[in-house]
């Protein structure tokens, strides 16, 4: 990998890391998710800092051009992030479903209480006699 490619890869990785830190600082990204993104950014920074990492990745994977190993690494990081966020989304979907059911039950209870109060007020307005 040429020096210019390493510099570009390093700058992109640092920009990603700085953006993540800024998002955490402005509370746009929660810390628990920032760890994954920062880990991915640091993982992408390693090949830019050391050529050996690129060759170490390229050799066992059978990649002829070591620079392509950065692309493979980026795909791996993206896959890990996608799996993680799919798990989080699944949990949130289940939680949303449960909360929707609880809300429906609470609304039904409120309606029952309001109906009972209306019936009590109607019957007390007519002296306790139902018409």
How are the secondary structure elements laid out?
Blueprint: H1 3-25, H2 31-49, H3 51-61, H4 68-125
Helix pairs in contact: 1-2, 2-3, 2-4, 3-4
Task: Summarize the structure in words.
The chain is mainly alpha-helical and 131 residues long. It has one domain (3-124). It is built from 4 helices and no strands. Helix 2 packs across helix 3, helix 2 runs antiparallel to helix 4 (68-125) and helix 3 (51-61) packs across helix 4. The longest helix is centred in the last third of the chain and has 58 residues, at 68-125. The mean pLDDT is 87.
Structure summarized in a few sentences:
The protein is mainly alpha-helical and 131 residues long. The chain has helices at residues 3-25, 31-49, 51-61, 68-125. It has one domain.
Distance between the termini: 92 Å
The run of helices and strands is HHHH
Q: What about the largest sheet?
A: none
Give Rg in angstroms. 29 Å
- Helix/sheet category: mainly alpha
Helical amount: over 70%
Helical segment count: 4
**What is the molecular shape?**
rod-shaped
| Beta-strand percent range | under 5%
Mean pLDDT: 87
Low-confidence stretches: none
- Domains (count): 1
Please report the total strand number as a whole number: 0
Notable traits:
mainly alpha, 131 residues, 4 helices, 0% strand, rod-shaped
